[in-house]
Amino acid sequence: MKIYNTFTKTKEDFQPINPPNVTMYMCGPTVYNYFHIGNARSFVMADIVRRYLEFKGFNVKFIMNITDVDDNIIKKANEEKKSTTDVASFYTEAFFEDVKRLKIKTASVYPKATLHISEMIEVIKELEKKGFAYNVNGNVFYDVSKFSSYGKLSGKNTEDLESGARVDVNEEKKNPLDFALWKKVKESEPSWDSPWGKGRPGWHIECSAMSIKHLGKSIDIHAGGNDLIFPHHENEIAQSEACFEQKFVKYWLHFGFLNIQNEKMSKSLGNFFTAREVLDKYSAEAIRLFFAQTNYGGPLNFSDELLNSAQKGYEKILNLAEKIEREINLNTRSEIIPDFDVKKYYSDFEKVMDDDFNSPQAAAVIFDFIRAANKIIAENNNIDSIFYQGLKQFLKNTAENVLGIIHFGDLANALNPNIDNEQIEMLIKKRDIAKKEKNFALADQIRTELSNLGVILQDSKTGTTFKKIILK
Predict the structure, then answer these.
(1) What are the 10-residue block averages of pLDDT along the chain, 472 residues in total?
(2) Which residues neighbour 396 within 8 Å (Cβ) at sequence distance 6 or greater?
(3) Burial of 246 by CB count in 10 Å (0-12 exposed, 13-18 middle, 19+ buried)?
(4) Among residues 93, 222, 283, 304, which one has the fewest Cβ atoms lying within 10 Å of its Cβ?
(5) Would residue 283 count as lying in a domain?
(6) Is-contact 84 188, C-beta < 8 A?
């Protein structure tokens, strides 16, 4: 296995610190809003990385933090005239709802910043003791000048950074690049007792403290979006390595931006869709396939056209999965067991995923498998169900367990057996009217709602027909 390491800018052989155990930390949400579909890309791709490591036989301890004290949370609380606790609790619950809908595996631990204040204080105290931190009237800053290799992850030069236009001016700092470890209490803000007086932690110290608490002083993989390389991850390195005098992270893994018309999607630009808005239009499997079909580190343009294409791809997998389940349920015993080299597809899948989690090629292997399987099924009648067992096992091991783009466990419940054909026809007519009126959002929504009920629409020049997925 090879992984592209942001730190070395090269692909490296993956050799965990303590095999077969792997420690992996993923920067999670700051809970002041619903997370957007760009965040979802990072969360889903980290999930696929974790799943593939488990597929390879590693025992993965996966940590995703919850930042529940932050400037944005305080701002949101003031705007809504609520407590920061209420805001954070509401959006934390929303986060868990949305990651569940995206079929993301539950983390080993979801540590919350507010429950790790004492660990943060201990790290800051040690940094102050070693001369890497200084206190100015209750505000504690990290002294970047004392960490000689600052900038080694991002490749940024400290002299260039100091003269950069984006550097905030703060008269309390010795150096413009110094960053806050502890912030002195302000009126109506949450605060905790500390050796420097009441206050709250800075953002960067949170991840260092929570990572160390749950995974140890040195970890295998630290993942997050490209936008976190500087300053967040750079500052994590500076804090952690200054404090414990050992390498903090072995492999840094970063996920590319999701763009709207080639511009980064972000809350600050206002050009974003929340994950739950997109999940209301498309299945989780289609969204995951959409993400998987582009290399995790590169940019990806968001469009309904691409998501509709992914939805159709998902339906191809779904069609074969439904056929497999029906044939297994029939339990046909026959002499006809077609010669089908499933091992070849396992080998192809593993080969591409071993090359820096090449999910686009892995998805291509799965679709090659589906085409080959469908060809054999079309050419043979009365096939022994053992053939379908092999097909199912391959799709479960790869498409389900690694990419998460099909879920056999959901198929039995995909169709409401009481759904009325007249109701389906009525919705199809409503969809046709929406399309004529160019209300494509409504048309897509109807298609997705029917798909979720186990009704697959098939458009043609002569009109729209439907079929029900009936498994039992």
Answers:
(1) 98 98 98 94 98 98 97 94 96 97 98 98 98 98 96 88 58 91 94 98 96 97 96 97 97 94 69 89 94 96 92 93 88 90 97 98 98 95 93 98 93 56 85 88 85 79 74 34
(2) 408
(3) exposed
(4) 93
(5) no
(6) no
Indicate whether 291 belongs to any domain.
Answer: no
**Whether 372 and 425 share a structural domain:** no
Question: Is the CB of residue 332 less than 8 Å from the CB of residue 384?
Answer: yes
Closest CA to 472 of 316, 334, 328, 314: 328
Encoded tokens for 360: 């686009």
CA dihedral of 371, 372, 373, 377, whole degrees rounded to 10 = 100
**Both 220 and 322 in a single domain?**
no
3-state SS, 430-466, equals HHHHHHHCCCHHHHHHHHHHHHHCCEEEEEECCEEEE
325 with 351, same domain: the answer is yes
Q: 358 and 48 in contact (C-beta within 8 Å)?
A: no
Q: Is the dihedral of CA 356, 361, 367, 373 positive or negative?
A: negative
Assess if residue 288 is contained within a domain.
Answer: no
Do 28 and 115 lie in a common domain?
yes
Give every CB contact of residue 270 below 8 A, 6+ residues apart in sequence: none
Task: Describe the strand order of the beta sheet including 249-255 as a list of residue ranges.
Answer: 59-64, 21-26, 219-225, 249-255
Range of the domain at 452: 421-468
CB 73 within 8 A of CB 29: no
Considering the domain architecture, whether residues 236 and 318 belong to the same structural domain is answered as no
CATH at 365: 1.20.120.640
- CA–CA dist 179, 235 (Å, integer): 8
- Amino acid making up residue 225: G
The pTM assigned to this predicted structure is 0.86
Contact 226, 255 (CB under 8 A): yes
Sign of the CA dihedral running 260, 262, 265, 271: negative
Q: Is 450 found in the same domain as 324?
A: no
Report the C-alpha gap between 103 and 252 in whole angstroms.
24
CB 336 within 8 A of CB 383: yes
Domain count for the chain: 3
**Pick from 277, 311, 342: which residue ends a domain?**
277
Based on the domain organization, do 326 and 359 belong to the same domain? Answer: yes
Domain boundary among 262, 277, 292: 277
Confirm whether 416 is domain-assigned.
no
Same domain, 92 and 115: yes
